[in-house]
Specification:
heterodimer; A: 196 residues; mainly alpha; extended; B: 185 residues; 2 strands; 68% helix; 3% strand; transmembrane (chain B); BioY (chain B); cell membrane (chain B)
Amino acid sequence: MITGLYRAGNSRLHRAGAGRKLLALILGGTLLLAISSLPLAALGLLIALALYGLAGFGPRVLWTQLRPIVFVLAVLFLAQLWLATPAEAVLVVLRFAALVLAAGLVTLTTRTSDLVAAIERGLSPLSRFGLDVAKVSLAISLAIRFIPAIGQIAGEVREAQLARGRRPSPLTLVVPVIVRLLKMADEITDAIDARS
Amino acid sequence: MSTRDIVLVALFAALMAALGAFPPLMIPAIAVPITAQSMGPMLAGGILGAKRGALSMLLFVALVGVGLPLLSGGRGGLGVFAGPTAGFIFGWIAAAAVTGFLVERFWRGLNFVTAFLAATVGGIVVLYGIGIPWISFVGGVPLATAAAGSAAFIPGDLIKAGLAAAAIVMVKRAYPMIRPAHGRP
């Protein structure tokens, strides 16, 4: 089973409902993006940092959240310095740091299963317009189950090719894996239909 | 949506995750890592068609959003959507839809050239057409600057469009999934 990015803990943030956290994130993020104010962005970043402390996360966790965007932020910062004012350059960096940290915090403190449940609850009003929420849930749980299986299938195909003395290339690996997936889809479909 | 459609959508979302686990290729001449993952939308659209392909990408984006580390490099979670390059992630949904739409149009006489055209228009033109304005808008930089910063990835994406096109044609021959509507040329 694939493990999510959730980090166990018992803080108030960990215990808060997934729906509430998502709503707070959407409201906070919209506010941060809608108002171009340096003090507000700085305040947003401070609040995000304080919440990491509240959730019991240290600098190392903070860094894992920021590391993937550091390069893009550096480029944006330099572009803003060049094209606009230093204040704008700082604003862009502060804003993204705050947004990415806040969004990452929801992920760190909320179990994947709770977020999936929140999505399903959020979608349920759409059932009036013909959306079948049970099918959405089925698709989500199937995909989570299939992820480790595909790695396994790719490994088997690679081994079979090596045994036949063929060097696997991206193409000779991808095509047999996909064809096996498509055949598997029929068997899985029959199994699901037989059970329901 | 039949049960089979749902299974296919879930399988291709999972395939997208598996592509993210591939180690990125470094091509010295362009100094940009090439990840297998951006082949996913081209494959999903080109093999499943527009609707199921786009839904599989939507499902994949949702799985990333609920906190699974499925993007190449093990990234995931809501923080990814808040970053300046999030348009390239949401854009996968449209990329699969357009690739799928074009492959459906070209279905009868599908060959490498038409499949490559579909993968390039969907997986590169449409994807960058969403990703670049997104950076420009949220990052507050001019379009040209955002485009210049993204251009380095285009050569790698063209190679992936070629691989995806070859795979789309081969899979069509082995196991065709798209059924053209009756009476359409």
